[in-house]
Amino acid sequence: MLSSRLKRLALIVPLALVSAGLGACSFQPVYSGRLAENPQLQLAYAEPTTRLEQIVYQELSFRLGKTTSPTAPLITAKVSTSAAEPYLSATANPNKPREMTVTATLTITPRDGVDTKPITITRTAKAQHTRSGQVLADEAAMIEAQERAARSVAESLRLAVLAALAKG
User: Which CATH number characterizes residue 116's domain?
Assistant: First the structure.
């Protein structure tokens, strides 16, 4: 009898503690509340010089908002790519797996007259594609992999920007 009561108690007490602990937590949506009302999220973007920079700027402005205010922090992105054959294969298969790496360095420069240092954030993303030996298909697959990786980098940068601006 005592044993079954102890077992029940041993099961109920941890559940009660976990419930109380989670009850003390609070979640706040990213696009509402204090973060959305933060004037630092009114961002201006530099003009893109490449297609991948354009994708990064479009993704960020769509998710974080965009302003034309001359005092809004200016976001500048530099995007670079590299390709590699991540796997060694001794088969006669003409399809060769490839990996596209996109690295983006984002600089947030304050323009409101306050003497603060720019924030620099660097993120990398990879996307895989297959090279088949057909020139047009290979080119299309490479471009699609670059754009997919650029969108992934933009999402990672968006989260880093939110974190960096929430601190400051």
Answer: 3.30.160.150
Tokens 């600089």 identify what position? 107
Sign of CA dihedral 85, 87, 89, 93: negative
What is the domain extent for residue 56?
42-167
Residue 74 parent element (H or E)? strand 74-84
Q: Residue type for 45, please?
A: Y
Helix (H/G/I), strand (E/B), else coil: 97: strand
Q: Which two tokens stand for residue 147?
A: 């754009």
Q: With 0-12 CB in 10 A as exposed, 13-18 as middle and 19+ as buried, what is 50?
A: middle
Task: Tell me whether residue 9 is in a domain.
Answer: no
Coil vs helix vs strand at 86 = coil
How do residues 118-129 score in pLDDT, each as one tens digit? 999 999 999 998
Could you give the count of Cα atoms lying within 13 Å of 29 in the half-sphere of its Cβ?
A: 5
Domain count, the chain: 1
Tell me the pTM: 0.72
d(CA 26, CA 18): 14
Asked whether the beta carbons of 34 and 55 are under 8 A apart, the reply is no
